[in-house]
Each structure stands twice: as structure tokens, then as C-alpha cells.
Amino acid sequence: MLFYLVEHMLQTHSSTFMHKDSSIFRSESSLLVRILFAAILFWCVEAVHALTADQVKGMAIGDTEARVQALAKAAAMPDEKTAAFIQALADDAVKTAGGQVLLVKDGKASDPVTGADVPLPADAEDVINNNLMRGELDKVLASLALFSKDEKRRRQAIKTLAGDNDESRLPLIEKAYAAETVPALKSQLEMLRAAIMLGSSDQSKRLQAAGLLATSGDPSTKTVLLERLKSETDAQVKAALQSSLRTVEATLARGDKIAAVFSGLSLGSILLLVALGLAITYGLMGVINMAHGELMMIGAYATYVVQGVFQKFLPGLFDWYLLAAVPVAFMAAALMGAALERGIIRFLYGRPLETLLATWGISLILQQLVRSIFGAQNVGVENPVWMSGGVQVLGNVSLPFNRLVIIGFAIAVLLGMAWLISRTRLGLFVRGVTQNRPIASCMGVNTARVDTYAFALGSGIAGLAGCALSQVGNVGPDLGQGYIVDSFMVVVLGGVGQLAGTVYAALGLGILNKFLEGWTGAVLAKIAVLVLIIIFIQKRPQGIFAMKGRSAEA
Amino acid sequence: MNHPRQLPNSLTPYQSVELPFRTPLLSRTGWSFFMLALIAVCAVAPLLNLWLPQDSPYHMSTYAVALLGKIMCYAICALAMDLIWGYTGILSLGHGLFFAIGGYAMGMYLMRQIGLDGNYKSTLPDFMVFLDWKVLPWHWTFSDSFIATLFLIVLVPALVAFVFGYFAFRSRIKGVYFSIITQALTFAAMLLFFRNETGFGGNNGFTDFKRILDLPIATPNMRMTLFVLTGLTLLGFFLFARWLVQSKFGRVLQAIRDAESRVMFSGYNPLGYKLTIWVISAVMCGVAGALYVPQVGIINPGEMSPANSIEIAIWAAVGGRATLIGPIVGAFLVNGAKSWLTVAYPEFWLYFLGTLFIAVTLFLPNGVVGLIKKWRGTK
Hints:
The complex is a heterodimer of chains A (about 550) and B (about 375).
Chain A: H1 2-44, H2 53-60, H3 64-76, H4 80-90, E1 94-97, E2 100-105, E3 108-110, E4 117-118, E5 125-126, H5 131-145, H6 151-161, H7 170-179, H8 183-197, H9 203-213, H10 219-231, H11 235-284, H12 292-313, H13 321-343, H14 352-374, E6 390-394, E7 397-400, H15 401-423, H16 425-435, H17 437-442, H18 447-472, H19 481-494, H20 499-520, H21 522-539
Antiparallel strand pairs in A: 1-2, 1-5, 2-3, 3-4, 6-7
Helix pairs in contact in A: 1-4, 2-3, 3-5, 4-5, 5-6, 6-8, 7-8, 8-9, 9-11, 10-11, 11-15, 11-18, 11-19, 11-20, 12-13, 12-14, 12-18, 13-18, 15-16, 15-18, 16-18, 19-20, 20-21
Chain B: H1 28-51, H2 62-86, H3 95-113, H4 126-130, H5 146-170, H6 175-194, E1 206-207, E2 211-212, E3 215-216, H7 220-246, H8 248-258, H9 260-265, H10 270-296, E4 298-299, H11 306-319, H12 325-344, H13 349-363, H14 367-378
Antiparallel strand pairs in B: 1-4, 2-3
Helix pairs in contact in B: 1-7, 2-7, 2-10, 2-11, 2-12, 3-5, 3-10, 5-10, 7-8, 7-10, 8-10, 11-12, 11-14, 12-14
């Protein structure tokens, strides 16, 4: 369920982010308007006609439909003043007084046609834009923004225009298409153009458009095609539309599959991070650490604290706070782990059930401690700028950067740990002590200290997992609770004492979970996975990769 | 109060087990204490609560009745946990599931008893009207019959425990593996019950009960009846558990706990023994849940959270495992402390509980009862 929540939260998070983005776009737009006009002027030189008072009245006064028509006419070949006026309309900065239309800025009025200042009459009324008008204004502004020099704004504009197939915008879009230099945007514009051409009265144009649209991987293309298919009468075009539709649907299906695999990998990488720590403390040392989730929570809160420090003292370097947070999270959790091992867990070696209860107690105390210090509410941890956003792979698949970074991070931690365990002196000691404690002790290994180091290492990796989690999920006192069952499942499934098993189990569980989710919904998928694990354990109680041994007690 | 030679004092493996010989169920002092408890539950509590006037210093408040009734339900759970953990060495972290199943079975009956008095004046429970369901789902078929509900309270936990236990014990899952899997089981069940589609009221569960057996549920008399019933059940289960652990069956259980391999090499198949005690323990929890729901007036999936189940284990551990009186004492101590602390110092409750977990495992392996026995022994 927690994964479901995280996913959900992510979605809302990203959507609020999008929203923020567009509001920035709005507020900046008045500043950028000048740049925009220069561009428009440059591209529209041959056909510019000046804004007239009639046009202004047409756009500002009257019923909405007439205004929309006037707007479309004026926007087809706009000059600088027209663009400024449309912008002002969208910003609610236009008033009317007795048939006269006025631009109002900072309480001063000016004439939109001549630009001359005029006194603001007391009885001036706001121009009310209803939703239809507002949507139309947005579209017109977007089509103007197609000529912006800023690539981001152009992309945004194409997005706004997608799905709207008003033929009157075709000349502008064709112009923009001819001028566009960025290949990705150019192809998007081509799709936009094709979608509009689909409604053309010319049969050959429609055929051409249908063919073009087949290469699109965007979900909105499917709706466009379906809609046209309903009203299409020409048999030839109809066939072309149908074949395009099939191609688009295939592309979309492929995209869905890729998306499921990716989110499975993403979940798997998180599970892997969570389970890697357990692979040491439980897998190698045999300590059931129910407080593992709380060690993750400590890592996440350490990230939060580092973020706060950067906000306060190093705001210039804020984008890189995460680099500092990683070692801090590791150390905080590792120190806590070392303290726990020295203080409590070492007295319980060989008594797994008691260890389980004691570490559960520890987890309760740590949770309450965090609640006392940071409050019971979730705290906000922000993504650095370079981790927000994502890459668009296909029309309907975009891979968020934070998820990609976490996948990379999980791989790095895995490699680092594999190296540590198999290549370093400490790793040798850890393996020696876990395989045969008395002999390792005879060889002069300080087994008690190795235990502490190993436990601290496992805890530190839990801290790293917490640091990673803080970038994709909520950071709160309950952070660890939701992962503990899953992570134990990964270790149990993978087999005790095996890194490779942990990796396969984590990724396998992640992908299985996501595929089932697409099929049955998040909660049922989770239940199905738990039931499958319980059944699996029946067949192979030692996990996928069992350690070979002769012990009678499994 | 226990016969000194009856029970092993510690849980050390390979301790020699004395030959079984016929002993009375309880010692003489044991019986006197039992009788005292019986009188307290059946006579003293009703007298103090119902017959004494409100302003009398000896009046037992409604709050006290509700609290003690609740804790007695918990004590039944702790007793059940002791049978499976203290005597058989299998730590279940999923007993909250059986408790909740029993509670839900009772809750379904109580929901049907609301009849037309719900917010929507419908024969269907309110949440179903809210979800726009027209007919009762199949698993509510018998929910209007009290007799059927009584059967469900026993049979459903038994069935769930049997199926799960059979597969788990057959493939010899034991120790921590078993604990973790039982935890996953109750976690999965919690997720399932949280869903509206399963027909158990989703997040909110069942509440707003009005009647039981067509009698109003919130009256002092009904409260006291449920209280006495719970007390009698607890005492009855105590005697039953006592008989069980003294029987040959109980001795095999303890042998399994101390050295399962040896038991197998001696020609016993532990599967049947483990499965039987596991099912008995689950049914006890289910009954406790069924008694709990009408007294507290609500049941929701939160009862199945892993934290609740693990708390049952700490009641048993605090009181003392492998003594039957211990878990009951533990349930009263821990829950008494809980109801006091969560009101007086709410932020300290989790610190206290956490410390209790650590302290008991580190310093009190035999619990409070073990400690008292040790003091008696050294005197």
C-alpha cells in the first residue's frame, strides 16, 4: 500500500510541479513578451497588419462567440500591439468604458491602438472572460509563443496547443514548423500540423495527414484519429486512418510495457537499497532487525537536516545538498546502528526471537524520538533542480530523473557493497566471522568489533536507502514501517547470506508487483505478491539461492 | 500457586523433563485464587458497579468496567500467545489477525442488529448503502443469526489458522521465518480489509452498534453481562490451558519447543501437535475478539496491523512465558500502564513500550512471574 501511496504522491507532486512551472511561465510572460514580439515581428514581416480600433472592440466587447471569432482573425497575422493586447486580455488588464476599450496597467489607462495614455474613467468595467474565452486566449498566446526564442516555452506552447485542431491556426503552425530548428520540437509541430490537416476539406491533405500521424506515439493522437474516423466519409482516407490507428495503438502498448518495466525497476531499486542493508544484518549476521526501517528513517531525516543547513548557510549550493546528504545519512544511521549493536543487540546473539522483540522496541523508541524532535507531520524534502523533470522516451512514457538517479544510486551502492564484502580486509573479516566465529577468533580477529562494524555497515546502507527514499516519497516518522515487511520478504525470498539472491529478489518483486498492479490494482497486487511469497517459501524454504550446508536445523 | 515441580523454570534447551505423573489441575492455593477471581468477576464487580450508588467511594465506574473488560479480552489473547509461543516455542506475529476475524464475525452480526436504525434507514448496513450496494454480499449470509455467528467466531479463525499452519508447518518453516511470514499474513489481511470491495466497511470498519440479541447494547446491565462473560471465558480458558499443558500433549509441545529434532528422532511427528495448538490458540484469539467488539463498540482493520500483533507477544513476555498466569498478569500490567500513560503522558507511551520490549528481553527472560518466583526461591 505504501508503494501505492508513494506513487500517488509522486503523481500529485509532479503535477503540482507542472502547475508551478506554468505559473512561472505566466508571471514571466509579461517580461518575455518583448522578446516574443521581436520574434513575431521577424517572422511575420510580410503579412503584418496593424491593430485597429474595430478589432480591439471586437475582441473586448460583445458575446463570447463573436469575441472568439474576432480574436482568431486578429491572431492570424498579429503585430506587436495585437499580441500585447491579447496578453492583456488574458491577464485581466483590459477595461471598457462607454464603448471605449482601455489597457490598464498599475492603475493607469492607455489606448491599445495608439498607445497614448488616457484618463481612466470612473465607470470603467472589467472585461469578463468566461472559460471558453480564456481557453481560446491561452491557445492564441501559445501559438504566439511558438515563435519564442526560448526552447522551453516553445515546448510548452506545443503542449498547450496539442489536441486543439482549429484550422485557423494552421498558417501560424506551418510558419512555426518551417522556422523550428530543434528536431524533437519540429516533429511535434509536424504532428500538430497533421492533426489540424486531418480536418481539411482536401482529401489528399487528409490522406497525407493520416500517414504522418502513424509515426506519432502520443496518446492524444489516438483520440484525434478515432474522432476523425467517426466523421470520415472517404473510403481511402478511412483505410489510411485505420492503419495509422493500428500503428499508434501498437506504439502506445509498447510504451505502456516500457513504463511498467521502468516503474518495476524503480520499485525494485528502492527495495534493493532497503534489502541490501538487511542482507548484511540479517543475511550475514542473522540479526532480525525490526528497526531497520527506522534506520532508514534516520537517513531520510538526516537528509532533511542537511537540506535545512544548506538552505540556511549555503543557499548558493542548494542544488548540490544531496551530495553532502549521502555521507551524512550514512554516518548518522551507521552510528546509531553501532550504538544499538554495542548497547543491546550483542547481548541477544543466538536468540533471534528475542532480538526481534528488542529491535521492535528500538523501532518504537526511534519513531517517538523523531516525533518529539521533528513533529508528527511529514517534513518536506525537495528534489534538487537537476533531479526534477524527466526524459520523454515515447509519447506516453516519461522517465523521471529522480527515479533514474535512484536506480543508478542503487547500482552504485550494490557494487560498492559487493566490493567491500569480497575485496576488502573488513569484508574478509565479516565473512570469516559469520562463517566460523571460533576459528576467526583463533586467527586473531576481534570478532566483537567486526560484529559492530558489520552491523554499522548494514545500518549505514539503510541510511542511504532513507536518503534515496526522501527524494521520491514522504519523509515522516512512519517512513520505515511500510518497507519492513517488503524488505524482509526480499531477503527471505532471495535466501539468507546471498547478495545475488537479494538483487534478483528485489528486482523480481519490484517488477512483478508493478505488472500485477497494472492488472489488478495496487493493493490487490501487494496481497497477491505476499501470497505468492508465502507459497514460494513452501517449496523453497531457503529462498531462491540457498546456502549449501549440512545443518539439520534449517 | 503453581506446583513447584510442574513447570521448567527457564527455557534452556535440553533441560531434562520430569516424568509425567498425575497432578491436580491446580494446587490448593491455586484453586483458592481461582475461586477468588471467579467471585470477583461474577459477584463483586456487578455489585460495585450496578448496586452501589454513583457517589459511593466503592462504586465501580463504567469506565473501569469497560477498561477491565477490554483488558480481559487482551488477557485471553496473551494466554493464547503463551500456548503457542511460551509452550511450543513458535512466535506468531499474526495473532491480531485471528482476534480481528473473531471481532469481524461478531461485528457483522451487530451490524445486522442495527436493523432500520442506521443513518440511511435501510436493512443494509450503512456503509453498503453508502457504496450503493443493493444486496448483501455472500459472506454476510448467516450474519443475522446469533447461533451462526457463534459458529463463525470459532470456525473462521480455526480454518484460516489450519490452512496457513498446515502449509507452514508441513514445509517446516520455523523460528524467525515463521514469525515474519505470520506478520506478512496479517499485513496482507489488513490491506484486504481496508478495501471497500471486500465488504467489511473499509477503513472505518463496523461501529455504531445498537443491539445484541435484540437488547440495547449500551446499557449498564448489558455492559456488566459482557464483562462477566469475558471474565468467565478468561477463567475457563485458563483452566483449559492448564489442563492442556499438563497433559501428555502439552508435554510433547514443550519437548518440541526445547528440541524439535529430538522429538522427531523419538518417533513423533510434530506437525499434528503444532497444528493443533496453533488452531486452538487462533480460536482463543477469535473468541477474545468477538467479546471485545461489543464492549468497545468498534472494529476496524487497524486491529490487524503488525504492531498490534507484536504487542500481544510483549504482554506474554512481560508476564512470563511458559507460565499460564504470567501472560494474564502481563496483559493487565502493560494495558493498565497504556491506558494511564496515553492519557497522562501520551508522548511517553511509545518510549515506555519500547523500553519494555528491550528490558524484558535483556533482563527479564522469564517475565514478572519468573522474577517473583526467583525472589521466593532465594528467600
